[in-house]
Amino acid sequence: MAETLLALDDVRAGYGDAVVLDGITLAVAQGGSLAVLGRNGVGKSTLLLTIMGFTRVSRGAIAWRGRDITRAAPHWRARYGLGWVAQEREIFPSLSVEENLLVAARPGRWDLAAVYALFPRLRERRASRGNHLSGGEQQMLAVARALMTNPKLLLLDEPLEGLAPIIVEELTAAIRRMTADESTAFVLVEQHAEVALSLSAEAIVLERGNIVHRARSQDLLKDEAALERLIGLRLAEEIGEVG
After folding, report:
1. H or E stretch at 228
2. pLDDT value of residue 233
3. 180-193 as b/e, with b when 16 or more CB fall inside 10 Å?
4. Is the pLDDT of residue 62 over 70?
5. Residue 55 near residue 77, CB atoms below 8 Å
6. How many whole angstroms separate alpha carbon 110 and alpha carbon 118?
7. pLDDT per residue over 162-196, tens digit each?
8. Residue 204 class from Cβ within 10 Å (0-12 exposed, 13-18 middle, 19+ buried)?
9. φ, ψ for residue 157 (rounded to 5)?
């Protein structure tokens, strides 16, 4: 049985006195993949921020490989093996692509050669400054930089948002390749339900800060009625959006 990397047990979290998540329990195993779905404003990004240590946890516990990290600082969580791709990307605009990658490098399988093989476009733009990249290239750089930390679990916060269909295809193909050997687990927050479910093994749906549905991704992908009820989106509409 695969080792459990991340476990949340009855977690209540938010910002200051405001509660955004309440009663969140989930687990991600080594090589596992979890899609986090839901309408806007239900707490999906807050869930990733909570896992990384940027919110106030007022109840419950967060464990990493059996170790309680509920109060651990974000930089320690990164050292333990959590990688995070923020929705805002947060690349260094004045550094080149290669400098952005090297500043985050830690020993492991993901080095410059590996990430350039995953994202050939970044190899071509390796001398370009971050603020000279297109939005899609910046997103590729954000994912590649997170991989350079050689995480065991990668948190991806809406990596496909606002991107052209061809870039969406490149990024989804890269996510499939980087997890093909099951050495990198991921949690994916994504508005495009069909894409998220096609990439992941398991899925949860959030509503008002609670998990209201759990399923195998392929089972939920086939259940259009449940998707429309839970998320309010028709797959046919999404297919048109993502190409």
Report:
1. helix 224-231
2. 56
3. eeeebbbbbbbbbb
4. yes
5. no
6. 10
7. 888 888 888 898 888 887 765 789 999 988 899 99
8. buried
9. -105, 100
